[in-house]
Specification:
about 210 residues, alpha+beta, 2 domains, two-stranded antiparallel ribbon
């Protein structure tokens, strides 16, 4: 299934320079780099590592798109390439990734910030008297109390994505992708969906026009 809407008659075989071989090869190289940064984002053991991997992914994603457009801008792929561009420009998530990369690279705006962890304690089925709260590194929080068991909610520290600004236009953190609502908008969630889109676009271009 196509990542985005295209017409069946776009299928064709490349001739000569219709698909710039070097550009398409570079798109695939950058896609592999994006995959590695996606894995690094998922495996990050610290917020600094997460922020570094996310920034690298943004750069790779932009390079994949640019080289894929360069490779398919002429010949039977021209219309397909135009649809790819329009999809990127209109889709909330893809547009955000594109603009966040510009903000990150040029230092125009911060694209993410660390948010401290939060501990919320509310009453359970009845009154409780809390004696001590002890934070245990790597294990969480220990609470000594008398009375009814309180309700404890712990939210660990995390990286929160921010709206980005470019040339006076603000691009909010996306809430949907390809007409589907996003369950969340974390860096890893957005990176996974952007990578899937790009991987499918590269594979589709190769199937439609290269083979």
């Amino acid at each position: 299934m196509s990542t985005f809407e295209t017409d069946e008659h776009l299928h064709g075989t490349f001739r000569g320079d219709d698909l710039a071989p070097k550009a398409f090869s570079r798109a695939k190289d950058h896609l592999e780099s994006a995959r590695r940064n996606l894995e690094a984002t998922a495996k990050a053991s610290s917020l600094d590592e997460l922020a570094w991997a996310w920034s690298g992914f943004l750069t790779d994603a932009q390079r994949v798109f640019s080289k894929l457009r360069e490779a398919t801008r002429a010949g039977p792929s021209k219309r397909w390439s135009e649809i790819l561009q329009r999809t990127r420009d209109q889709d909330e998530l893809l547009r955000y990734v594109h603009q966040a990369r510009h903000a990150d690279e040029h230092g125009l705006e911060r694209i993410a910030q660390k948010q401290n962890g939060e501990l919320n304690i509310t009453a359970g089925d009845g009154p409780a008297h809390i004696h001590t709260i002890t934070a245990i590194p790597g294990k969480g929080v220990s609470i000594e109390y008398r009375g009814e068991r309180p309700v404890v909610t712990w939210t660990p520290e995390r990286v929160v994505l921010l709206p980005v600004r470019n040339r006076g236009v603000v691009y909010p953190v996306p809430t949907q992708h390809l007409r589907q609502r996003l369950p969340d908008a974390t860096a890893i969630s957005i990176a996974e969906r952007a990578y899937q889109f790009l991987a499918e676009a590269v594979a589709e271009a190769e199937t439609r026009f290269w083979n």
